[in-house]
Amino acid sequence: MTYTDNEHSGAAATSAVAPAVGEPPAAAADEPVDFPAEIAITDPKTIRLISNPIRMIVMNELFGGPEPRTAKELGRIAGISSSAMSYHLHLLGKAGLIHRVDSDRDGRESPWAPSAQSFSIAVSEQRDSGVRMKVMDGVLKTLRMRINDIMDVSAAMPMKERRRRLPFTPMSTGTLRLTRAELIEAQQRINAVWEEYMQRGEQRKDGEYDYQVAYAWSCLPSDVRGLLDGGDGKGGAGGTVGSAGAVGTAGAAEK
Known about the structure:
Helices cover 40% and strands 18% of the residues. With 255 residues, the chain is an alpha/beta fold. Helix 1 packs parallel to helix 5 and helix 2 packs across helix 5. The two termini are 22 Å apart.
């Protein structure tokens, strides 16, 4: 999933992009549906829809996972009941973001799959700050839920068992002092690492990996207003960006 189109991100381009505009294209029973490579979500209404933390978890799980999942499976991951999860799945399905794989089965047992290989949200293109903050709130709430879950599980384990069973990084923060070239290079290298491991996992099916990991990271100036005023992002006057605050996190469920 991509939240912005940063020119320095190093993200791979997709071959086909389509906006999310309702139900996925219909097809005859014996014909496969031609889904796009990527869904570009630009409509504020759809952005608000998926900014709900539960629906964001669903989008991340379905678009990032190797297999379709049922309401029961997704409900377990999100910590809600199957019936409550079915409600969120139907909303996402109505928006054309996901679809049922087998509509003949019971609603809670019918697997759901993404209606594209990936999706992106052009947050930076949204002029309404309320829409932008809605997305960020959804991302941060989802992240907080995952961190809280891993800490709850971790606290109940003896230290020796915790280190063996939970090799994750709930949160890591720091401050860097970089030249502009270093700032761009660092982001490209970090994105390249995530991209490498995403490509490795794309072809893996259930049983072929030990963990499914959720990650999020950002690299931000310590003083963005200082940049706009001609400063260097560290609170004083100067030339290029000289300081950046970075945060990275990863959380996963053991299979």
